[in-house]
Amino acid sequence: MNIRDLMTSDVQTVAPTDTAQAAAGFMLSADTGSIPVCDGDKIVGMITDRDIAVRGVGKGLGPDCTVAELMSKDIVCARDTDDVHAIAQQMSDKQVRRMPVIDAEDRLVGIVSLGDLSRQAQDSAAKTALDGVSAEGSQHEQH
């Protein structure tokens, strides 16, 4: 099974020039903790509620700082043709709960989450991802 078969394709995004407050508002309305950052249809980063709280508030930045100041830039993406099990393993290895999905032209076409894997994937794909994400320690870097 390919990731495109179970990814969520209706993905809300923010621009690098949007404010942290706007990003937080999108997260609140979408009931999510992260949102892809796109320049046109190309993904350039991800911003999370933790980025806003830790990178933003922790550094004394206000709600008007830009998403570009807070976002993670070195993100891992899945290709829409990637195998579900390979992406589950990658999510586990990178300890991420949500992964942007891009097409052959590097355009954002969706996002895959642990929830998508657990609801629709067969065998142990969701367990593989969940085991890694839940493991002690994190490979995430703080800027």
Task: Explain the layout of strands and helices.
Layout: H1 20-30, E1 34-39, E2 42-48, H2 49-56, H3 67-70, E3 78-79, H4 84-94, E4 98-102, E5 108-113, H5 114-120, H6 125-134
Parallel strand pairs: 3-4
Antiparallel strand pairs: 1-2, 4-5
Helix pairs in contact: 4-6, 5-6
List keywords for this structure.
alpha+beta; CBS-domain; 3-stranded mixed beta sheet; two-stranded antiparallel ribbon; 6 helices; 36% helix; disordered C terminus
* Secondary structural class: alpha+beta
Strand coverage percent: 15-25%
Give the beta-strand count: 5
Fraction of residues in H or I helices: 25-40%
Distance between the termini: 36 Å
CATH architecture field: Roll
- String of helices and strands: HEEHHEHEEHH
According to CATH, the fold-level topology is CBS-domain
Lateral arrangement of strands in the main beta sheet: 3-4-5
Q: Could you state the CATH homologous superfamily?
A: CBS-domain
- What is the number of helices? 6
Q: Which regions have little confidence, pLDDT < 50, spanning 5+ residues?
A: 138-143
Largest sheet: 3 strands, mixed
Radius of gyration: 15 Å
pLDDT averaged residue by residue: 85
Overall geometry comes to globular
- CATH class membership: Alpha Beta
The count of domains is 1
What can you see in these coordinates?
With 143 residues, the protein is α+β, with helices and mostly antiparallel strands. The protein has one domain: CBS-domain (Roll). A hairpin with a 5-residue loop joins β4 and β5. The chain is globular, with a radius of gyration of 15 Å. 32% of the residues are buried. The C terminus is likely disordered.
